[in-house]
Amino acid sequence: MVSKELIEILRCPDCVQNGKGELEFYKEAWFVCAECGRKYPVIDEIPVMLIEVGDKWVSTPKDQLEVPAPKTAAD
Ligand SMILES: [Zn+2]
């Protein structure tokens, strides 16, 4: 489980620089940024909040994301 406190404070590491970056916690497997479209996987219960990882999923519609996120999502 990802803790509620963590879910509330996590922001997209790119958009947060403009004071935004709120994330949607999607199916307990991904954090989705509505502003830039990056999607950050939760792997082994750890959210991987790296811009270059989020970049990989920009063009994947969120309903096509694997749930749970595959361990290779952050490779
Ligand atoms: Zn973003």
Summarize, please:
The chain is α+β, with helices and mostly antiparallel strands and 75 residues long. It has helices at residues 4-9, 51-55; strands at 23-26, 30-33, 39-43, 46-47.
Characterize the structure shown.
The protein is α+β, with helices and mostly antiparallel strands and 75 residues long. It has one domain. It has 2 helices and 4 strands; from the N terminus they run H-E-E-E-E-H. The two termini are 22 Å apart. Bound molecules: zinc ion.
List the helices and strands and how they pair.
Elements: H1 4-9, E1 23-26, E2 30-33, E3 39-43, E4 46-47, H2 51-55
Antiparallel strand pairs: 1-2, 2-3, 3-4
The structure holds zinc ion.
Task: For the structure shown, list the relevant keywords.
75 residues; 2 helices; 4 strands; single chain; alpha+beta; binds zinc ion; four-stranded antiparallel beta sheet
Query: Which sequence of SSEs, written as H and E, runs from N to C?
Result: HEEEEH
Distance between the termini: 22 Å
Number of domains: 1
Question: Low-confidence runs (pLDDT<50, min 5 residues)?
Answer: none
Summed up, the helix count is: 2
Ligands bound here? zinc ion
Counting helices, strands and paired strands, the structural category is alpha+beta
Share of β-strand residues:
15-25%
**Share of residues in helices:** 10-25%
Q: Give the assembly state of these chains.
A: single chain
Number of strands: 4
Q: What's the main sheet like? A: 4 strands, antiparallel
Gross morphology is: globular
Radius of gyration: 11 Å
Strand order of the largest sheet: 1-2-3-4
The average pLDDT value, as a whole number, equals: 96
